[in-house]
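Expect chain and fold; thus:
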Amino acid sequence: MGGIKEMKQSQSQSKCLWVARDIAGEIAKGERQEGEAIPGMSIMASKYGVSPETIRRAVSILAGKGVVEVKPQSRTRVKSVKNALKYISYIEKDNELRNAYHSIREIARQYQELNSRLLDTLDYFVERKISLSPVESPFPNYEIPIPDDSNLIGKTIGELKFWSNTKCTIVGIKKRDETIISPGPYLSFEKGDIIVVIGTAEAIEDSVKLIRQL
């Protein structure tokens, strides 16, 4: 019962805000001038298809924003076009925030759904004890030390045109204190470097010859 009551209250509030927004819009567009009396409760209720209580609440909102003026024993009159414009601007910004809020909620919902599916998939692998092993390369790695007196020292990989001359790929350079994986063409060779290559036996043989000839 509580849920139905809250839903009805929410619907009533929405109608009230809709009426207030429409009246403010008429004032902002100059359809109602400052000092002009707006129609009575029953006429407005008939126009918008709502109860007089909804109209009363809508007028109360506009009065609180300084858009209209309500005096006892007198008809409600337009107070400020400027305030009507401010109220409409406020409503539009509020709607933007509400839309952004709902968008974020939807993104969060989708994230939770994807996260749940990911966890289910991981559980599937764990339960079946599936292990994934990397595919072995058809070509073994081969290490070629650079001679201390090699003319290769100081040159870059790009200058050597290694692949063009040997059809072998440099997959790493072992230096004294680190190993550089997939070195770029601008990396310079230094004394003590070890070139790690991959390729066919013939290509590796050509690589060794090239380095020793330099």
The longest strand covers residues 169-174. The chain has seven helices and six strands. The two ends are 90 Å apart (CA to CA). The chain has two domains: 10-133, 141-212.
